[in-house]
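My current task is to audit a protein record that another person submitted. My question to you is simply how this chain folds and whether the tokens agree. This is what I was given:
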Amino acid sequence: MLKSIQIKDYALIENIFVEFGEGLNIITGETGAGKSIIIDAMSLLLGERATIEVVRKGTEKSIVEGIFDVKKNNKVKEICKLNEIEYSDELIIRREISLKGTNRCFLNDTPVTLNQIKEIGDLLVDLHGQHEHQSLLKAETHIDMLDDVADLTDQLILFSEAYYKLNHLLKDLKNLQEKESLLKEKKDLLEFQIKEIDSVSPEIDEDEKIENDLRILENSEKLLSLTNEIYESIYEDENSIQDRLSEIKSKLNELSHIDITLNEKVNEFESVVAILNDISSYLRGYRDKIDIDPDLLESMRARVSSINMLKKKFGVTLKSVLEHRKKIGDEFDLVENFSSKISEINNLIEIARKECGSLAKSISTERKTVAKKIKKEIEAELKNLGIADSKFEVKIVNEKAEDNYILIDGQKFTYDHKGYDKVEFYISTNLGEDPKPLIKVASGGEVSRIMLALKSILAKSDKLPILIFDEIDIGISGRIAQKVGNALKALASYHQIIAITHLPQIAGVCDHHYSVEKKKIADRIVSSIRKLEFDERVNEVAKLMSGEKITEAAINGAKELIASK
């Protein structure tokens, strides 16, 4: 819902702020007062482009800011999250149009691009009239509207899964076929590299382990000499450490017999001796295991050299070498078994084409059933709105294909992520004319009434929360005007509607009434807008009925219209 809009220094507008309500919001005012200027300003919030001509004379920039209630619009929330825009239940959209050409866009005070504003705008508002922001005049949206009415969400999810599965298989096949000639050219090289690596057959982390073993083996003589010297120093040398420790122990025992408080130190000394004995015992065993083997040393050096050569050619680390071996091994196996692999994927693709075809056919049947229902309802609604001889059709076509296709009853059809149907609305508004694409119908009030009829039928399923109608009453009056007003009122049960009208039959049934006025202030013409209270509403509707001179009959008629809502 559009909660409010503020417009500053835009065309004839100096500064206006207006709050809109739920339901049907009607804007009235004399021709040239600035009603369409307000709609133009609203279109800026939806991502329409602007020129510096809109900047009010004597000012530097125009500002249009709208506050929208988006708490029920999950798509807006997703876009904000995706673009790292702070999200809240209120979304503030602001456009600044500067004479310097530095036009700026903001979402919740975060600078964004015009395309991002438009993406959000397309999820919030449908604007009908002389503007281009009309979803029903975009043929690509027709299939979504039909699917909403048919409630095909679950079926479309299933089809989407099958669609992406098929496309993934087709992509795999294409990649495989592109690789075929290249891999065949590389076959000899792959085979040579595999043999080169396999001739060494390195194991994971072998280089680190063997380099440690080699370092020990290369220093075996030094290790033997040092461990032997340590052992002899402890036990075998004249005045060895063991002999000296024995003397110290004897003296400590003698001291402890004199002063028992030294017993604790005697025990600690014995622990030191025990630790030393453990160390010497370990060193003796370590010394006895040392093997000075020149042949083993050369063998290990050759092994390290072979592994380093592989690392130099195929990767900085041994892990990289082993990963390369797996990769070229897989590629070589693929070359050797190319035909069977291609055949396997083609079989899977054939199954996927049939699965997609079955789901697409089921969806298409549902669409055609709902299309017949929509045709009757919309033709009846258009007749009710004064387009008596209208014909409406939902054209669903399917195109044959040769290359990229799904299979339906053995035949090949083009497809996309929504199935194999191409959907477009066709309409004729004059007797004897064949229906033509909706996007080519007449503009102005007739278009707006067609949109109103469509929206009335699609109301419950339409995802856009705000509808804006400009010039909806052109070319109608009397009984038809009353019906248009009633249709707008009914549609306002599902959407917030903002509409400009000159007809009392439409203005009288609104929930909120606003009047646009043009005044001369200090040699300048300024447009303003205000919300009308009940008595003001009666006068405004009466003025629409009788002109500037409001009669008693017009007052009474206005009260009846307002009361009838």
In short: The chain has a mean pLDDT of 86.
